[in-house]
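From the shared-data thread, chain only:
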Amino acid sequence: MSCTCSKTETGRGAEHSFAPGPILLLGAPGVGKGTQAKELVKLWGIPQISTGDLLRGNVARGTELGKMAKELMSRGELVPDTLVNEMVAARLAEPDTAKGYILDGFPRTLGQAGWLDDKLKGLTASLPVVAVSIQVGYNQLLRRITGRRNCPTCQAIYNVYMNAPKQEGVCDVDGAKLVQRADDTEEVLKERVHAYETLTAPVVEHYRAQGRFAEVDGDRPIAEIAAGIVAAVERLRG
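Structure, as tokens:
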């Protein structure tokens, strides 16, 4: 399928006439899924659907689903797939999803992936999900995570290896002392990467087996990664 957008190299200021359908972005912690989701939202004019945002939104609005989730969380229990699935189903029924959407944090398990496939089969106008995994080597992930520094005042984010402040340990914007999150350590990263790989490996194989999976190199400039994702989606939809 051909692309009619002439600005895929930036991902800014242009919108594809091509309807991308539902896209699942995959990748280990620190690969830049959130950044790429924002690029694709700007490019295609489609929403990003985060299960975390859906959960918080339902709780904040006091919906029936939100009340059930809040009660479970207040008891220290996990919100089950069935409840998350219902929240996703309600969100997919909204009109802004007609052209497509970017899935963030869902489907996270093989059961959720199967549920979503069945759900979309019941929607005559819906395309199936395609999954794109952003690949970054472990050492690069380590630099991204352990080098990260945050400004507690203006929320600016720096990296001592790749985007260092002009003055060590000080925010360029307001002069505040930069801080490192307690969980931005190699030990925590190892745990998170292992958990991610264990949980999502069956999801990756699910989409790979159906010819709906692609990988892109995430160790490049933001615009180049976005262009790689666009090309992968168009290839999978072709």
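Confidence is low (pLDDT under 50) at residues 1-15.
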